[in-house]
TrEMBL record:
Belongs to the ZW10 family. InterPro entries: Zw10/DSL1_C_sf (IPR046362), ZW10_C (IPR048343), ZW10_C_2 (IPR055148), Zw10_middle (IPR048344), Zw10_N (IPR009361). Its main location: nucleus. Residues 588-742 form the ZW10 C-terminal helical domain. Keywords: Acetylation, Cell cycle, Cell division, Centromere, Chromosome, Coiled coil, Cytoplasm, Cytoskeleton, Endoplasmic reticulum, ER-Golgi transport, Kinetochore, Membrane, Mitosis, Phosphoprotein, Protein transport, Transport. This is Centromere/kinetochore protein zw10 homolog. The lineage of its organism: Eukaryota, Metazoa, Chordata, Craniata, Vertebrata. Residues 2-84 form the Centromere/kinetochore protein zw10 N-terminal domain. One of its GO terms (biological process) is endoplasmic reticulum to Golgi vesicle-mediated transport.
Amino acid sequence: GEVCTMINKKYREFLPSMQSAEDLVSQVDGLSSSIDLLKAGIENEVQRDLNIAVAEFTELKQQLERDTLVLSVLKKLQEFDTAIKEYNTSLLEKKYVAAAQQLEKARSSLKTLESRKGFELKILKALGTELTVQTQNMLYHLGEEWQKLAVWKLPSSKDSSSLESAMHLELHLRAVPPKEEEIAGPPVAAVLQAFAVLGELRAKLKAFGQLLLKYILKPLISYPSLQPFTEEQSDVLVLRFKSEEPNLDHSSPMEVFDKIKLVFEVLHEHLLNVPLEQPVEEKKDCRVQLTELLGDIIWEELSDCLIQNCLVNSIPTNSSKLEQYIEVIKATEEFEEALKNMQFLKGDTTDLLKYARNVNSHFANKKCQDVIVAARNLMTSEIHNTVKITPDSCVALPVLPDPGAGDRLKTQKTSQLLRNDMVNLENETKLSQYTFSLPTCRISSSVEKLMELAYQTLLEATASTDQCCVQLFYSVRNIFQLFYDVVPTYHKENLQKLPQLAAIHHNNCMYIAHHLLTLGHQFRYRLTNILCDGAATFVDLVPGFRRLGMECFLAQMRVQKGEILERLSSARNFSNMDDEENYCAASKAIRQVLHQLKRLGKVWQDVLPVNVYCKAMGTLLNTALSEIVTRIAALEDISAEDADRLYSLCRTMVEEGPRVFTPLPEDDKNKKYQEEVPVYVQKWMTFKELMIILQANLQEIVDQWADGKGPLAAEFSAAEVKSLIRALFQNTERRAAALAKIK
């Protein structure tokens, strides 16, 4: 009864709807005995006479249920009240774990009450409010204690991410007192355990972990000069940084691991080495290390940061340094082992270690990326910086490993030169040393470097692991694919506008095609074992490069041809040369064409291989001569004065034309090519014959024709010769006789 009066007194204002306190008291007192009576009643009477008892039984049963329900509600209210009282007592004594457990008890009583259907008491809402207030109160006290345990002195907010600001950071940890002196305040364990009981521990640790990452762990990874150290001040341990001159831009993984290990050791010893009871609902082994909880929260972000800012930089760039990388893998293993011993990490191998162990593939990726970046830079550099190559030119190459030696062999240091004309094809047949030689010409120095890069990379491939070898081989193929795609588009305008660049690009493509013929061959022993049957070749790329060079140069030739015809079109069809104005126009057109050819002869000089040069210049001179012949042969009337003037225009072409052939810088060496002009200019003899006709009389023309067997007949058709005779001579019997002989 005493319970009831107390509850009643305390919550009077909430219970207008319940029976008076006396009813409750008598009900509670009488319930036990009335239950016994009911039981006996049911058993005896029902058995005695079922029919009479059915109605009575139902009534008694309902009453029993009502009574039981009321009793259980009162019990729960009493439990709630007791829990809140005991919680208050414990909180005052700073017994945080006990206090937290009482709060959880009160919470579960309230849950049970709320789940009772048919008893929606107004009191429950008030109890809920009370519980929330007390929980917040408790969390506030715990928060205060937690802040005393770990005090952050953060750098000013202005720049939280510089080396300078990192130097201002301090973390103060309250030294854990020896066992007998625990009066000083609740031990770390109690505070954290109470958080755990209230289900707030993870949130607290998450906030702590974020500060730890931002202000301590990440700066240690980013700034090689930071060194963590600790010092004791009265009863506090201070963790902060000092700065030392770093020896490198990036610290080695070993150094970074050691620094981070130190931080974790300090935390482990002074703050986190606390086993916790987990709330009982998680029926499994409920002791869990605090370190493990923190590790769970920060490990993923920490290991990502270590990989990106530390391990990535430590991946070697050439295969000779791969050996030494074992140290890094070992350091990574030891680092993880240490964290496992402190229980920051659970059992499995983590991403960090997987990354370190996978060094071969990272090495290959990094190497391939470096190669492609270097190649791209070369391709986008200026084309017109050239070097001269000759049949004796070489690609400077370190010695290739002996075919049988396989992986054991580290590349020797001596250097052998690969000559353009020396390719030993197993001596199955002796080839002329010039079969594979390149003619003398100029190529872009960037292309020469590109070729060296390709050879270097393949050489590196032969000294690498299989996986890496395959990747490097394909990245060399990619270099050439990239050239094929990038250069023509990147330099498009200049290749169209500047005849010299078109010529250099033509040479570049031929030079690359030339090397691609034999490139795979030199490395075949090492590469073919790994790449499927003889795939270690570049020969398939050769036609594409030849076509690329040719197309670019032919496009330039079309432009030049167009300009020649454009200039000649202003020569007024070479008709009526006795008119001064017409003669001037024709004469000017001829001079312009010769000037254009002379300029081309200069810009291609020493650039194009001599045979290509002569063919190109010959083709263009031929275009001019051919056009002049066509125009003159089409004239219907040529006076004597016209004929003389046309002859002198043609003579200028024949005298000046060969002089545009200057393939070599040394003048005396060009004579030979100027004398060979008829070989390169298809219409040369036709042009000479036209000049003879312009000066000849009828008899001489008939003699030149010689019944269709003479030199004139070799160059002109009968119809053309007849047309010229009609234009040049008046209609006489002699002309008719001459015409009759031309057939």
